[in-house]
Amino acid sequence: MKKIKIWAKKLKRQIFVLYLAYKDERVPWYTKLFTVCVVAYVFSPIDLIPDFIPIIGYLDDVIIVPLGIMFALKMIPNEVILECEVKAEEIMKNGKPKNWVVGSLIILIWSIITFWTIIKVYQLFN
């Protein structure tokens, strides 16, 4: 159990590293795009596979998120990662940052998808 807690804390720190690296101008635009998608997905209350689905529901938390983090970290220059790791430790001590713009964007996207799905289902049955 202790290993899982250590792994989870390391994962959380890596998310903050990605969050900070996204803001760095030394990171290429395509890396920023991928990184913001990974961070937004992690902070999003909506999962690709809902958690209430037995076993499969937690696959995104255990497999997809760590893979996304790993790929994003490989794309970021090492000097940026080193600087962001120091800042991430400070953030973890002071509490999570809140980004209402990204949160609102995620809610808007899911609302559009839901609305579109409802319209398509309605059209299908009429």
TrEMBL record:
Main localization (coarse): membrane
Protein localization: Endomembrane system
Top-level taxon in the UniProt lineage: Bacteria
Name of the featured protein: YkvA family protein
Membrane topology of the entry: Multi-pass membrane protein
Start and end residues of each DUF1232 domain: 32-67
Swiss-Prot/TrEMBL keywords: Membrane, Transmembrane, Transmembrane helix
Alphabetized Pfam families for the sequence: DUF1232
Transmembrane segments: 100-119
Species this protein is from: Metabacillus fastidiosus
UniProt keyword Repeat present: no
